[in-house]
Amino acid sequence: MMDWTDRHCRALHRILSRHALLYTEMVTTGALLHGDVERHLAYGETEHPVALQLGGSDPQALAECARMAEDWGYDEVNLNVGCPSDRVQNGRFGACLMAEPKLVGDCVAAMQAAVAIPVTVKTRVGIDRQDAYEPFEAFIDTVAEAGCRVFIVHARKAWLDGLSPKENRDIPPLRYDFVYRIKRERPELTIAINGGIQTIDDSLDHLQQVDGVMLGRAAYQRPYLLSAVDSRIFGGDATPKSRAQVLAEYRLHVAAERQAGTPLGRLIRPLLGLYHGQPGGRVFRRLLSEGAHDRAAGLEVFDAAVEAVQPRGARASSNVAV
């Protein structure tokens, strides 16, 4: 989710669901220890519960960054051992760390010793030519022995040489059976599943086998599916918000951020899939995308796009002021 789940994306997702746990983009330890801390860690108070996802392989650096996450009020800190990009590998973190389970365990132990908030691990079911279940099982066991109780598992292995990050999200086959099996055989662990999950119905099916579901691309390509999470996953009785209501609430975020100088392009990107498959969706995306090219663009672009999909009469009838 690098370059996607920034604080603006998370602001939109929180409007859609009150209860889903939100994750930041992966932030490297170097970026936090030697860069602009506020830029990487700032978030809105409405985002809770929210987890900071870290990338790194030095236990002490990760421990220091975990302390920063706790100091900033994050509800969880997550170590990413699943990202397969070349840039990540060159920094010796991400999916390549699956080849060093003891080091991952050392990292987890150091992080847990530093903070009271949960320390979790995001991983894959294997790397490169690891096609069997046993290497995945051994990795989970090693990291669990170091103290990790929560694993979010992308149910594909990662090819570290020969496939791009995009191809690594599609080409290696999904092995949901590996994730189901580790939960059956290690019931004391909390296991969430990720990879190829497109709908709430898919999520409910997986929840018959595991403890949680992480949505990735589906959540930012078709964000409105999150509107059903609270009622269908968490069992709440709240009626899902209409798209008009979502836009009305997000408009407040856009207005405040434009006042603070945030470019409109960063603010409208999470909205581009809101009307996926709906009448007027293409016009909505086009008006937002084209209008945001002007660095001085503001709410007039947002309002014009809203007008294309929610004419004034329709908005008035829904009692939503946009």
TrEMBL record:
* Active site positions, chain numbering: 83 (proton donor)
Transmembrane residues, as ranges?
none
Provide the alphabetized UniProt keywords: Flavoprotein, FMN, NADP, Nucleotide-binding, Oxidoreductase, RNA-binding, tRNA processing, tRNA-binding
Q: Where does FMN bind?
A: 53, 122, 154, 194-196, 216-217
UniProt keyword Hydrolase present? no
Enzyme class, first EC level, given as a word: oxidoreductase
Reactions listed under catalytic activity: 5,6-dihydrouridine(20) in tRNA + NAD(+) = uridine(20) in tRNA + NADH + H(+); 5,6-dihydrouridine(20a) in tRNA + NADP(+) = uridine(20a) in tRNA + NADPH + H(+); 5,6-dihydrouridine(20a) in tRNA + NAD(+) = uridine(20a) in tRNA + NADH + H(+); 5,6-dihydrouridine(20) in tRNA + NADP(+) = uridine(20) in tRNA + NADPH + H(+)
Question: Residues in domain DUS-like FMN-binding?
Answer: 1-302
Signal peptide positions are none
The EC number(s) given in the record are: 1.3.1.91
Single GO molecular function: tRNA binding
* Cofactor(s) annotated in UniProt: FMN
One Pfam match: Dus
**Annotated site (Interacts with tRNA):** 80, 166, 169, 282, 285
What InterPro entries does UniProt report for this protein, alphabetically?
A: Aldolase_TIM (IPR013785), DUS-like_FMN-bd (IPR035587), DUS_fam (IPR001269), DusA (IPR004653), tRNA_hU_synthase_CS (IPR018517)
Top-level lineage group: Bacteria
Family of this protein: Belongs to the dus family. Belongs to the Dus family. DusA subfamily.
Primary role: Catalyzes the synthesis of 5,6-dihydrouridine (D), a modified base found in the D-loop of most tRNAs, via the reduction of the C5-C6 double bond in target uridines. Specifically modifies U20 and U20a in tRNAs.
State the name under which the record lists this protein: tRNA-dihydrouridine(20/20a) synthase
Q: Which organism is it from?
A: Abyssibacter profundi
Gene transcribed to yield this protein: dusA
